[in-house]
Amino acid sequence: MAGNPHRALSRASRDTQPFKSIGSHCRWVSTVSTPSTVTARPDQDRTTVNRLIEWLPDRVDGKIRLVAWLSFVAETMIIATGGAVRLTGSGLGCPTWPTCTADSLVPTEELDYHSIIEFGNRMMTGVVGIIALVLFVLVWRIRAERRDLFTLAFIVGAGVVAQAIVGGITVWTGLNPFIVGFHYVSSLVLVCVSAAFIARMHQPPGPRERAVPGWYAGLTHATSAVLAITIVFGVLTTGSGPHSGDTDAGRTGFDSELLEHVHAWPGYALLALTLVLAAAAWQLRLPTLRWALALVAVELVQVTVGLIQARSGLPPLLVGIHMVLAALTAAAMTVVVLQLKQPTGASQSPAEMPTAASAR
Length: 360
Hints:
The chain has two domains: 58-205, no CATH class; 208-360, Four Helix Bundle (Hemerythrin (Met), subunit A) (Up-down Bundle). It contains ten helices and two strands. It has helices at residues 5-55, 62-87, 113-138, 147-172, 177-201, 214-240, 256-284, 289-311, 316-338, 353-359; strands spanning 208-210, 341-343. It is a multi-pass membrane protein.
């Protein structure tokens, strides 16, 4: 009746078998789950990146248009703030760069309002850079089919960085008038690139063909050259005038009164040539008409402001407006040049235009 010990041992072995199975299962789970936890984070990172890329526009949409216009406005505004720095004598309000003083990144109590104006312009550079970066990211997904927009966005972003460095060199050289002039011209170029982005984003990608007669295209490029000459002499005139940016800053040494006249001559020629472009576009119904008229309007205001400021002793406010208008003139001229070509098939063949014009 005591029972068979071998039978009891066998029964005990059967009773503990489930626990052995559970233990082996736990060990198996631990061995296979360990690698999955190690590889989970890279998978999560890839998922996050993919979601970000999917969020980016796959075509030119409202987000790209909005940021493109913000970029253009910011590039124009920094010309205004840079002009304010120069016209208020605040060019060396922060005597060092990239910090404001040798010991402080921002203006200190010992500095005056000139430092606040100069530091505000430096902060505006940061705003322009952030907007340029956002635009570059937004066009990343369409970089293959819209290589033109991607390239223009890259130029703007890289140009902002280069402009910051040139601004630092301007401070280091004590506002050398030639470097200050180059700083302004390069800012103006970025305004033109931003305008080109806006013009191209409203047109489809693909091959383009000339949409105007050959003589009209040549006249437009000649007008652009006259505009460039006008801007260069305007920069030289300002560099020899009273608004140096600081009382201790040097001047070019040129005769400012003579340069005022030399600057005016190509300005008048520019207005005359633009009137011819607008009249021809009206007569031939060319795609450049709208922007040629806009260019005429900006130039008329620019000439008026230039005459008033020259005859009233170059008041700082008018000089600043004159600087901003020059940037807007260059931007409008850029768009006119881009309108010389249209997407293939969207316009009449250039070879047929002279015949059609003579038939009328």
